[in-house]
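User: I'm putting together notes for a lab meeting next week and I want to include a structural view of one of the chains we've been expressing. I don't have a solved structure, so I'd like a prediction I can at least talk through. The sequence is below, exactly as it appears in our construct file.
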Amino acid sequence: MIRSLRHGACIAGAVLAMQTVAAPAPLSPDVVESPLRARPGPADQIVRTLDLDAEALAAVRGRDHALVRGLPLPGGEVADALLRRVDVLEPGARLVVSHLDARGRLVERPLARPDTPILAGTLADNPDARIVLALSERGVDGLLVRAGETVIFSSGPRGRGLDPVVFRAEDLPHGLIDWTTGVCRADEIDQPLVDAVPANPAGGIAGGGSPPCRQAAIALETDTEYLAAFGGDTGAAATYALLLATASSEIYTGQTNLHLTISFLRLWDGPDPWDGPGAGDQLTQFRDYWVANMGGVDRVLAHFLSPRGLGGGVAWLGAVCNESFGYAVSGNLNTFFPYPLVDHSGQNWDIMVFTHELGHNFGAPHTHNYEPPLDGCGLGDCSEAYGSTIMSYCHTCPGGMSNMVLQFHPTNVATILSFLDDACDLTPGATGPAAIPDYVTTPVDVPITIDVLANDVVESCRPIVIGGYDQQSLLGGVVTFSADSGPDGRDELTYSPPPDFTGTDVFEYASRDTPGEMTWTTVHVDVFSFRAAESVVGDEPGADAAYYALTDPEVLPDFDALVPETTEVVATVNFPSTNGAFAGSGRADDVGAVFTGYVDVPETAVYTLFIESDDGSRLLVGDTMLIDNDGLHGMVEKAGAIALAAGRHTVRIEFFERGGGAGLIARIAGGGLSKQVIGAGMWSHGGVPGTPGDLDGDGSVGPADLAALLAAWGPCSGCAADLDGDGTVGPADLALLLANWT
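Assistant: Thanks for the context. Below is the predicted structure for the 742-residue chain, given as structure tokens.
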């Protein structure tokens, strides 16, 4: 049954009158550690091997929304991700397992919804990024798309026992994966619904503004070979099909505001009716069977998934809601996300094939079929293959799928939107508004204005506004309404923390749609203080280094109980891995080292410090251990973030090496600094604590210091003039300064 009107969740964008109502009691934060953990190894390796932590996975499974901390990315990067559980299955979706009996009759049994959570969302520090992950003991598949970069998570073929990995598609050397050169066969079949050579439109959206929210229900068909690729595991096979749909929906939603849902999924555990030798033949057979037998399946499109060597994929263009032509085939599927550690295996990028063929159904031709062409890859010109988009043929050029980014060309977007404007009505009916938790940070005593609806509009198909909010947070903060202050004139909420408060506070708000239905959710605010800078007089450049003789160490010792063999002053802690003597220790193995000094940061900000070491290390700022990189391992980098006031801060780095390579590198980022080795100009050592109130560091407290204190009067968390560290320069600080007047 072909549908013309769908129900679901999207955004259209209008403004309603503000109305404040009481909120339910706030919820506790859903903050969990990443189930994926980077295995020890060089931080700059192209492919990072991961482990899946069972306890953290269980914590993620138990939540509908979570802030997932410490997601490992390529190049030693870690990120926090705002993830939500996503279910692309419609409430009434049918999932079945079928086979043909000896007389050719269809035998069918229901299939339970998969229990593997599929998570989607964005990065906490990059709301434009889009991430999708399927995590289970069966396997790991996922992707992150940001600023033209695609990061892939994969554990490879099922049943092989391969470790999950993460890598950038763009970083893979040519030949590391022998990309299967299957192509789309849409140019080789009759396309009765659209012109073969479309004009190259100017781009954009007719009439300007955002595209309307739309939703498309897709029926998924497979073959016997598809289930066999998962070793007959119906749960894993169903999860992977839904992951393809979820990832595709994230891509389509981000560029066209078109949401994909699944109304039907069929797996085959025995004989099936499919024997098309190529993509075109299989498309016709698929269409004919469904027209004759599957008219009762609610859908706007049907899509065939197969790992068979069909030569690629194929689809009819502009075929949404068309019972005769609303079909597509994605062949040559891996049934796993690309995995570069399977040597010389022909691999397709399943998500690219699936989104490409759907693009045809939604009216988009190949990029080389425009007049003039958007790129020449399909015409034999690979000169500009790198960075090409979903509807191009640039995967057939040298570099294969690593040429591609998971985005549509703006002209393809314009074509899709133009087609959908004239196609069947895909605007959804009424559902409740979305409300997704928010996680923000602010310094002590500093208000923050929060665009609370930013992550709700993507999931809400009606116009939404702020329908209510707590005027007081759980711990006594004040929440006020900020009209028209957000992007596109969106209303926001301003949170003012309680005086001198640090920690996590919580309040709730509701999103409300045009019929007046409201959904409540939680805002978590982490209020932090800046570590006060230390006043030091007489310090000198460099860091103190002490080296120790150890015996077969496996973890860091208690260095305070040991006597160093040698000491020196080093300009920086920047010792790449070597099999020779470590730094100035004179030892290649069984060596320990402690580096102490002050690191002078240029401005008051949140900084990230990094320690890369072989073997173990830790880094402390003052008495606080910021980074724990202990244990036996190769060059592994770990990081920690800390809010520092401008000026000097005591830093201590402990290190040990048992055998083999030895290396230790300290890096910093933040406060206007890109990630870099902590340079010689930032390190100092020795000296004595300065006098409280000696703000200019000249060794005395006098008029210049008084002028500096008065200039900083008022809220000034972490600044040097805040002598008592209460976040405000006031009478108490003035009294301290005057008490030390010289």
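A couple of points you could mention at the meeting. Residues 536-689 form a domain with the Jelly Rolls fold (CATH 2.60.120.1560). Residues 3-29, 202-208 have pLDDT under 50 and may be disordered.

User: Perfect, that's what I needed.
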